[in-house]
Design brief:
This protein is an alpha+beta fold. The protein contains two helices and five strands. Helices cover about 25% and strands about 30% of the residues.
Length: about 70
């Protein structure tokens, strides 16, 4: 799922190894941290999304829900 916000763009997909987590991916530095400041963001080369973080599903739902309500 792609999420386009005024201050961030992320892709969210299921974690293949752990159904309780989601993989949040970003192309630009800071996009993930802007939404989830507590996230441990991994940086890698050679993929569409340079930045990645594995987050609990509940944390992702909470943040996205809050951002929707704030529109």
């Amino acid at each position: 799922m792609w999420i386009f916000l005024n201050d961030a763009f992320v892709s969210i997909v299921a974690d293949r190894k752990d159904r309780t987590r989601l993989l949040v991916r970003g192309r630009l530095p800071g996009d993930i941290e802007r939404l989830w400041p507590e996230a441990e963001v991994l940086e890698g080369q050679g993929s569409d999304y340079r930045f990645r973080a594995f987050l609990p599903r509940a944390a992702v739902v909470k943040t996205i829900t809050r951002r929707l309500r704030d529109i």
